């Protein structure tokens, strides 16, 4: 069996379809001539499973593809380093929001993301700090002061 | 009420100082976004959306339409002056715009582009005002089974535009539909696919999913390559100070009025088709202009028609997409999907009766589209140089700031942190799907259309219509047959002129579709059906009697049009 990108995708899709199809059997039966709750998901899942199976077959018949990040985990990690770190930083931004709030959390998030992507040299950091302050404080002010939207202030700002 | 009465009702709502100022600002933002390579118009509309929550429905929608129109035109500036299109909808503009600018006539090239965009938009807004109410009247004939078939058609067209990746396009569309099933079922309201997570019982709000899948994943895709993310968006190309000769370029565009009208109507038609947006229409119009030209050899070397066609078509596409959204309540592309979300935020639900029930809002949208084109013309003429300078921004700076803006905007939607988590989850999902080669647009359309399809299917059940309704209802049968042909369309496009069966595709399409059209009420539609049948039969007989010779495989103008993923 050839283990390529589409093969893995097709297997994951088939597993998702299987799990969700099993779950549809726990849904309530139809009443009073109404549409059963499980019908629509099954109408989607059955063709999705069949197409995934087709993808699996096509992936097995396809020529090996050497383009892309390569097969090793480290190669893959290096290839997708930037997006992975950006997602992780956004995750931290959301996790710390109850404490830091949108303003402080946003400033830190934008500054760190800019510096990670752009570089940590002093001149660049100064530029990133200015960009962060201008855009984050500006956006925060527009939403809270002009549009009257309540943004999470966080424990830190609530204390002071 | 006639069209002029409705316009009279809508005009006082739209022509207020505040709304005009907001529209002007929206057009400016759109032009700015369009001028930045890599920054799509959809992203600009998404970012503007949260600001419209505090506005009235007319103000909010007028502002978003202004962004849309501005964005469609903004791409031509960087495209003509630097050779790098600001948006995918201006790709074909660079084919002749950049050579003309390089040959020492940048002012003329820009002038032609600006006027073509303007006339394309004006023609589309006239068609929009005339066609949308008529289409809505046809839409009133639709029963749930017809709507369900229409959704299926929209999804198959979207998937088929994935070109060679039809299989992945279909999987993506079904996956989008599957995402929309998470939450509560539409009949009983019971939790479905929540797997014990309480928050998931509410399902996923439509806009965080859309922004996550489309904008969030796209931005992170753009910064994957460290060196590319640190470069200026406009590359090293620099634009010199340019003066547009408006009078000469206007005269030139008007002297090519056939191309303007043809490209605009083509743009409107492409806009009406689900998911086939300005990315496709600009290339298609360029292709048609080249085929119709008496001097096709000048194309690619600064031909006037080569600038007119894509610019008129891409602005006109917006009008076509709005026709479907306004008349049937179904989004035709990402932009109208976002606008549909904006309408729902304001408790306005588009449907076939929308234009009749809410004439003030509906005609305000028509007028806003018309007025936005004038604003675009005015702003483009005074801010040209500044917009080109925007291309000096570095990609990673734009990414970091916009990711934060996405978070703030999505939070402002319902004031709950859950929406921001939805944004992150679908951002990751969108990024992974892109990396795996799946087109994103079918997933988004699946998410948007999923609930509509389920509601309509449940209505089919509640009415006691059997499955035979798909064969006996003319519109349902029409859309189901079209769905079948749309799945085969990528193969037809690929093998047109190369395989014998492809010569029979169009005649058979006409003959088959004539049957449901013949079943429709009235006298005009059966007559149209007769014409379709006759045309199809004649073409079929001619093909059988004297088969067209097959082309050689390598053909320059055998383009395939695919979705921007």
Set down the secondary structure blueprint.
The complex is a heterodimer of chains A (160) and B (565).
Chain A: H1 5-24, H2 39-61, H3 73-79, H4 81-95, H5 97-118, H6 122-146, H7 154-159
Chain B: H1 3-14, H2 17-35, H3 41-48, H4 57-82, H5 91-102, H6 106-139, H7 144-160, H8 166-181, E1 183-184, E2 191-192, H9 206-222, H10 226-229, H11 246-255, H12 257-272, H13 278-292, H14 304-328, H15 334-345, H16 354-357, H17 359-389, H18 395-414, H19 417-435, H20 440-463, H21 469-472, H22 474-495, H23 505-519, H24 524-545
Helix pairs in contact in B: 1-17, 2-3, 2-4, 2-17, 3-4, 3-15, 4-5, 4-6, 4-14, 4-15, 4-17, 5-6, 5-14, 6-11, 6-12, 6-14, 6-17, 7-8, 7-20, 7-22, 8-20, 9-18, 9-19, 9-20, 12-13, 12-14, 13-14, 18-19, 22-23, 23-24
Provide structural commentary:
The complex is a heterodimer of chains A (160) and B (565). Chain A is mainly α. Chain A has two domains: 5-61; 73-146, no CATH class. Chain A is built from seven helices and no strands. Chain A has helices at 5-24, 39-61, 73-79, 81-95, 97-118, 122-146, 154-159. In chain A, helix 5 (97-118) packs antiparallel against helix 6. The longest helix of chain A is centred in the C-terminal third of the chain and has 25 residues, at 122-146. Chain A is flat and about 55 Å long. Chain A starts with a helix and ends with a helix. The model of chain A has no long low-confidence stretch (mean pLDDT 87). Chain B starts with a helix and ends in a 20-residue tail after the last helix. Helix content of chain B is 72%, strand content 1%. Chain B has a two-stranded antiparallel sheet. The longest helix of chain B has 34 residues, at 106-139. Chain B is built from 24 helices and two strands. Chain B has 565 residues and is mostly helical. In chain B, helix 6 packs across helix 12 (257-272). The chains are: A mainly alpha (160), B mainly alpha (565).
